[in-house]
Amino acid sequence: MTRYVFGFLILIGVLSTLNLALGQDYKSTVVTDPSISRRCEELLSKRTRKVGHKQKILALLIRNEHLQKITPPARISVLRKLKKNFRHLRHELELTQTQLDHHEENIIRKGCPGIAL
Q1: How far is residue 68's CA from residue 20's CA, in Å, rounded to a whole number?
Q2: Residue 85 burial by CB count (10 A; 0-12/13-18/19+): exposed, middle or buried?
Q3: Residue 33: which H helix or E strand, with range?
Q4: Strand (E) positions, 21-71?
Q5: Where are the domains of the chain?
Q6: What is the mean pLDDT of residues 73-92?
Q7: Residue range 30-42: mean pLDDT, rounded
Q8: Would you say residue 82 has pLDDT above 80?
Q9: Is the predicted pLDDT of residue 20 greater than 70, yes or no?
């Protein structure tokens, strides 16, 4: 009885491994349209650039906040410029986030296969 159970378990393991191998082979043989691939690559590269730009703006905002904290209150003109710069950076961040959302919607709308954002 235990031989049959053991043999059955081995058979299930072999079949699942074979099924997995066939599934991976299927994925490698799927033909995709090159124009779709190029378009998706371009959309993803634009999104990557925007994410990098957003991260730079966030770093500049943190730096600006730090500079505002350490600037002496007597330096009124410097503080004014830092606050103005902070407002511009926040606005730029909002615009970048809007563009990033638009790029992500385009990626989903254009139907790029296998994309996980």
Answers
A1: 58
A2: middle
A3: none
A4: none
A5: 54-112
A6: 96
A7: 70
A8: yes
A9: no
Rounded to 5 degrees, what angle do the CA atoms 38, 41, 44 make? 150
User: Encoding tokens for residue 28?
Assistant: 């490698």
SS3 sequence of 6-30:
HHHHHHHHHHHHHHHHHHHHHHHHC
Q: Are 117 and 104 in contact (CB under 8 A)?
A: yes
Element at 116 (helix H, strand E): none
107 touches 117 (CB < 8 A):
yes
What does the block give as tokens for 74? 């007597």
Contact 64, 85 (CB under 8 A): yes
At 104, list the tokens. 């992500």
d(C-alpha 111, C-alpha 6), whole Å: 46
